[in-house]
Amino acid sequence: QVQLVESGGGLVQAGGSLRLSCVASGLRFSEYDMAWFRQAPGKEREFVLGVEWGGRSSHPIASVKGRFTISRDNAKNTVYLQMNSLKPEDTAAYYCAAGLNSEFTAQYDHWGQGTQVTVST
User: Fold this and answer.
1) What is the pLDDT of residues 69-83, one digit of tens each?
2) How many whole angstroms separate alpha carbon 115 and alpha carbon 108?
3) Contact, 87 vs 103, CB < 8 A?
4) Which of 28, 37, 47, 82 is the most exposed place for a label (fewest CB within 10 A)?
């Protein structure tokens, strides 16, 4: 049974930082590309940033460029999302996903339950 469990979300003031973690089990983690998506209320789920199985990260969406970075530790079956200089518009549920490096949700086989990030002004 595959499980992706996110953690690290919470309430933070604008300008602050958070580090999200996603621990995977039940799959050969090192063989999967991983990604973080987010979904704000009333909006579609959007790709944020991805990392290939070997560690090379994709280009982030423009709105987080220079503020968010992704990394992974295959020995710990974990992918991270470091979020700096957070803005209120970053408020969303953040999901990690395992699959094929892509900005499209259909390319991912497995999803976590999400962790909420709320950025206050």
Assistant:
1) 999 999 999 999 999
2) 18
3) no
4) 28
